[in-house]
Fold this protein.
Amino acid sequence: MAKCFSTLQFHPERCDGCIECMTACAQAKAGTDDLRFSRIRILPSINGSGHELALCRQCADPVCVMNCPSGALTKNADTGVVDWAGDKCVDCLLCTAGCAYAGIVYEAEVGHVSKCDMCDGAPACVAACKNGALEHRTEARLFNGFAEKEDMFCPGLAACHGCNSELLIRHTMRMVGPDSVVAAPPGCIPGMGTVGYNGQTGAKVPIFHSLLTNTATMLAGVKMQYNRVGREVIAVALSGDGGTADAGFQSVSGAAERNDPILFICVDNEGYMNTGMQASGVTPYGSWSSTTPVGGAMQGKRTEAKNLPVIMTMHNCSYVATASPAFLEDYYAKLAKAIEVSKTGMAYLHVYTPCPTGWRFPSSMTTEVCRMQVRTNFVALWEYDPENGLRFTHKVDRPEPVSNYLKMIGKYRHLSEEQVAHIQRTVDDKIAYLDQLTKIETHAAASAH
Amino acid sequence: MHSKYLIVGSSHAALEGATAIRLIDSDGTLAMLTRDARLPYSPTILPYVVSGRSRPDKVKLRDESYFRANAIDFVSDATVASLDPAQQSLCLVSGETRRYDKLLIATGAAPALPPVPGLREVPYHVLRSMNDAVGLHEAMQHAKSALVLGAGLIGMHAAENMAEARIGVCVVEMQRHALSGYFEPRASTIIERTFTRNGIRMLMGRTLQRVERAGEGCRATLSDGSTIEADLLLVCTGVKPNMDFLAGSGIETEAGILVDDRMRTSAPNVWAAGDVAQARGFWGDKVLNGILPNAVEQGRIAGLDMADDAGLQPFPGAVPLNTYSFFGQQAISVGRAHADDGVDVKESGDDDKGVYRRIALKDGKLIGIATINDFIDAGVMWQLILRGTDLSAVRDKFIADPMLTGRQLMSQTWR
Ligand SMILES: Cc1cc2nc3c(=O)[nH]c(=O)nc-3n(C[C@H](O)[C@H](O)[C@H](O)COP(=O)(O)OP(=O)(O)OC[C@H]3O[C@@H](n4cnc5c(N)ncnc54)[C@H](O)[C@@H]3O)c2cc1C
């Protein structure tokens, strides 16, 4: 199985050209401030308006390695770094002919070619960058881990083109593992075939098609029975927002109040997308849906979405968090906590999963839409537990205007300027409100000082 | 024996061909035949074996684990004698027959000997194989004087090796200047002067008329009438593709095996790549381009095409290119060394300090750049040429600092 590797990402828009990264590199690699020893090079843009980068990409298919006649360059199968062995190098510079990024270069002062070696997994340049223009992306670790785990669903689930809920549930259940039981109330997730067709199941673990109204309580009961016969299982609900926020709410609320030991995941696509795109209680203000049409009397949904995850913090859940499939590291960290918590109490995860079919955006844009939800603060990523209260896990310091998000999506196409301004205000208010929640001093925090 | 993929040769073109096939097809049977007796190594490393800097057993391009991991049947000591494209089979010198579905010929090139009277009667060396390098290294232990015929890359490398081993070296070159394939006379002169300063006699613009035995060594008579005696004679007067075994096969050849932009030869199911292949030049006719990066690129294209890669990018055309280190200095050349009419050429540098730069643009696009002791990223320059990047708007900046401007342009492109 091919491996994925960590990488350095450059965000040119955040770079101010301070070149502290270069000093840090020269220091780390040669113990000097002489920038000729730096292996990362920040350059002014040709037109002077920004910054450019010359740095080794640790290519998957490194031409520098192919061009090396001495065996001095090799692609490290464990770390992904293109390693350079000085004792084998003959200074022929043919490697430099293979690199279109100026990632391996010769500097007379250094006396041989040099290239980035990722500092054994802790890049000095990233640590030195105060603007976040250099980022060490380590998601590969997750993919490698997940590739080794068994997929708990059958191949060929029939989700819509561009739907990332399938990705989400496959990854979720890989992490949850085989000792589990799944409840899937009516919605897209059973609709795509997880509960099976024609008498055959779509999952490799026990899965049942609960009612829209009884998922949480039924799952808690099933878990109780497993406990009674002496089996440890993770009880997972994969529910849509309808089965959580509307018809499903009384049972979710009851289970939360009793802190039943289940992991309840709400896959929120802002409505009943599976049955014809009707609005739900979490459909945002202004959205077109088949029950909140755009016409003479109505310009999309007239009421606000209820903030379901915040409502869940007002119950007795042991853990509540929001997540986005574009921020998988964040999601996996929360999922790991939620799995642990669900052994003794209720864990509630609210995942925002845009729907290309029902929201009307190109199927290739799903991840971009997820990303923009977070970048505009339309979606806030946070977690909560009663001990520590609420905290942001991915605070957005300079949010983009919400209009950048709205204009990506067809269901908002009709919005007037006033409506957009209104949505911007509610987004700002929501963040301000969450911010207040983060400041509440819990007992645990109070006794800590 | 039959295999889905059969590769002849085990050097750069062959290895990249095999790796590329395995990217697409992980289990089709693949065999690699080579006349070498050892694991793959690069001819380019040989000057460093000659000098003693690299040890013959430390310069492997791949080891057994690579062949095992990629399910490649690596067969050494297997020299191909003939090919029958109609039968999809080839015959080895041992008499063994091998059949294939798809064949890659990556047999490289061998030294070409000049037609000098007496040459075959005197002891001489060439430098193409590990045995050649080990033999030359040993001969250098006893020699006090050497004659190197040819001031191309190989001859120049070897002459330097010998001078460093305190052997009195004389280089004879038919062209007026050394390395004329990559550099203009002004640049060549700078390099030649470094050689002269290091005690090497550079006899340019002369040919060898005759050579005869003299004691353990030889006596050579040059076109200017002078004679030179040397303990050791090294002939580096160019190479010719290894394609004798194609006789009777009907595969089209000129100077090398003619291939298209997917490295296909005129025979179905037969590809050729590397020094043996004659492929489209970036500026026109099909050419031999006997350099390592070219072998790598062609081998890879051939392998991908053999495995039916749907995303294959065809060969963009051969660009001459070299990075050449001599006496701790660097000379780099990418693209066309010699200017035509209508070319915007800028030369700069300081001959005495051995610093040189020459940039040739045509219609605002880079067609050639050469430097000495003035580093440029050859890979970046190569891309600028291949992409035909329009430099008109940044011409002055590029001429003032090609390295920086090249990096800026490429970084922009990758965004
Ligand atoms: C001394 C020296 C220095 C060089 N320096 C440079 C340099 O600085 N820069 C640069 O770019 N290039 C340099 N080169 C050129 C470079 O090495 C070649 O371009 C490159 O090796 C070509 O690779 P190839 O795979 O096409 O062929 P080769 O490397 O020639 O390999 C051919 C392979 O085919 C095998 N073979 C041949 N005939 C048969 C047969 N009949 N049956 C079975 N197997 C056969 C051989 O054993 C070998 O494995 C140098 C070459 C030499 C000799």
